[in-house]
């Protein structure tokens, strides 16, 4: 019982870190509310390293994700005839915008992601919430900036889901052994 309680506290810390990290990435991009792409970046920043390992497992460079977000925005804007500068996060010395105040704000797709993450986590009750879980859930979304960014990088979403599941499975095995 104490172990389950401690696990829930750990998971809440991870969720807090994810939300704050995603908000930081969104604010650096000049956006008030984070999207799924910002949660991918936040997952890649988590100290467990499983999100990065999932990318690497399929031969993808996790560090290329941020630039691919900027590239696909630029491509979309050029497609409608707008020659836009790089987002603030890509400009040296830019601070983006200040974090929001009050209740945490997110986009509807992020709310759906959080619900799916909570449901997914129930099947991995013995393992802490990991960056790999975040990647697994986000990669399942067919639409949005995150899925378009994965496509731009040539990443097959199903392969990424499987790689994330493998990373989480390895951590589950380590947790059961420990």
Give a written overview of the molecule.
The protein has helices at 2-28, 36-45, 50-57, 65-79, 108-122, 131-139, 145-152, 157-177. Helix 3 packs across helix 6 (131-139). Mean pLDDT is 84; it is low at 88-94. The radius of gyration is 17 Å and the shape is globular. The longest helix has 27 residues, at 2-28. It has 8 helices and no strands. The chain has a single domain, classed as Double Clp-N motif, CATH 1.10.1780. It is mainly α and 178 residues long. 63% of the residues lie in helices and 0% in strands. The two termini are 17 Å apart.
Concise account of the structure shown:
The chain is mostly helical and 178 residues long. It has helices at residues 2-28, 36-45, 50-57, 65-79, 108-122, 131-139, 145-152, 157-177.
Please write out the topology:
Layout: H1 2-28, H2 36-45, H3 50-57, H4 65-79, H5 108-122, H6 131-139, H7 145-152, H8 157-177
Helix pairs in contact: 1-2, 2-6, 2-7, 3-6, 3-8, 4-7, 5-6, 6-8
Helix content: 55-70%
| Strand proportion | under 5%
Integer count of domains: 1
Quote the CATH topology. Answer: Double Clp-N motif
Broad structural category: mainly alpha
The CATH architecture would be: Orthogonal Bundle
Output mean pLDDT. Answer: 84
- Helix/strand order, N-terminal first: HHHHHHHH
Using brief descriptors, characterize the structure shown.
178 residues; mainly alpha; Double Clp-N motif
